[in-house]
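Students often ask why we bother encoding 3D structure as a string. The short answer is that it lets us treat folding as translation between two languages. Here is a chain of 117 residues written in the first language.
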Amino acid sequence: MSATDIDQININISDKAAQEIRRVMTENNIPDTFGLRMGVKGGGCSGFTYVLGFDEKTRELDKVVSANGVKVYIDERSLPYLSGVTLDYQDGLSGKGFTFDNPNATRTCGCGHSFNA
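And here it is in the second language, the structure alphabet:
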């Protein structure tokens, strides 16, 4: 079964995050045919944590979007929590890593890795 392409899903990836995703893929020999899996799972001090990884193919009921040249796979369960999210990459004095600006988050923890919606 194939994934559904939906244009109305609003996922944003900043230029800096897209550049870092491409760098990680190149350094780890991840083929361009893979997509970035973005999701949420239960856990963390605020209720949900973000999940990022690379997948070779979609799963049943995945939604597939393209954001800033990056193919993104989102499972149906995570979609309501991620619609409108912006993925960014920070590499300043506070540390390095991907960050999520999520308009659905009503509360986040101090570390920024978990949220509640």
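Translate back mentally: The chain is about 15% helix and 40% strand. Keep this in mind for the problem set.
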